[in-house]
Amino acid sequence: MDFQNRVGSKVGSGGVASASESNRDRRERLRQLALEVIDINKDPYFMRNHLGGYECKLCLTLHTNEGSYLAHTQGKKHQDNLKRRAFKEEEEKSQNPQLVQRVSVKKFVKIGRPGYKVTKQRDPDTQQNSLLFQVDYPEIADDVVPRHRFMSAYEQKVEAPDKGWQYLCFAAEPYETIGFKIPSRELDKTRDKFWHYFNKETKTFFLQFHFKADRTEQNTRPVTGFQPHANALNPFQAPAPPHMQQQQQQQQQQQQGGFPPMQPPRGMPPPPGTRMPPPPGAHWGGGPM
């Protein structure tokens, strides 16, 4: 075949290139130009598959090398798909404007864990178990209020989920978030049973809640309004001496309220077995963190 005497060719040249050769040369020029302008690693639609090839996630096309993918991005098919995707995103934003608002995670420097104290209590009237949490935030900002949240065992990823336990988390900037593992029992959210309070002077956050009484606790409640005889267990026993009778009468008067109960000193936690009343500015119930 004579390649030099083609129509339109010059003497000494290779002749006019065919259509396939022109397309190959055009793709090579586009590849070289794209390599200089485009960073392929920042392309969201570029993906390497497990076979060592390359794929376009937008057009679902396979490519043997990076140059082939870059030449594809300059083609008509890829450009049309980009226009369709942009038009679809604009339409979704106009229909659902709430999707445009994205919550950005606030970043701050953490200074460590706060100090805390946990007190176990029992209501003498209802025999309900309660917990009183005191968390100290001495370096907290003036406009920051500590928050708390009850979290299920299936929401955390630190330990294996156990349906018998739940977690109580406390958060306040710039301190780290701390959590406590408590029994997964139903809480009593009635008035005076669930309250939280933040003392801005001492920078201490208080939280107290009661568990609902179980059947076993309800059966063990003391019977009020009935005072058994001193010798009720053994009626044939001899009466107690006079000085012992006086001591028993004094104990009964103290139990009935004849003497005011001793109050703990200011700043000290209440003794176990007593329920701490909420301060005047406490908030009833618990809010999400």
Secondary structure elements and pairings:
Elements: H1 19-37, E1 46-48, E2 54-56, E3 61-63, H2 66-73, H3 76-95, E4 115-122, E5 129-136, E6 147-152, E7 165-171, E8 178-183, E9 187-188, E10 194-199, E11 204-211, H4 215-219, H5 242-256, E12 283-284
Antiparallel strand pairs: 1-2, 2-3, 4-5, 5-11, 6-7, 7-8, 9-11, 10-11, 10-12
Helix pairs in contact: 1-2
Q: What is the distance, rounded to the nearest whole angstrom, between the alpha carbons of the first and last residues?
A: 83 Å
Unreliable sequence segments: 223-238, 258-267
Label the CATH architecture of the largest domain: Sandwich
Number of β-strand runs: 12
The run of helices and strands is HEEEHHEEEEEEEEHHE
Count of domain modules: 2
The major β-sheet equals:
6 strands, antiparallel
Tertiary shape:
rod-shaped
Count of alpha/pi helices = 5
Q: What helical percentage do the residues reach?
A: 10-25%
CATH class of the largest domain: Mainly Beta
Q: Return the average pLDDT rounded to an integer.
A: 76
Structural class: alpha+beta
- Examine the coordinates and then state which fold CATH places here, giving the name of the CATH topology of the largest domain: Immunoglobulin-like
Could you list some keywords that capture this structure?
289 residues; alpha+beta; Immunoglobulin-like; 2 domains; six-stranded antiparallel β-sheet; three-stranded antiparallel β-sheet; 5 helices; 12 strands; rod-shaped
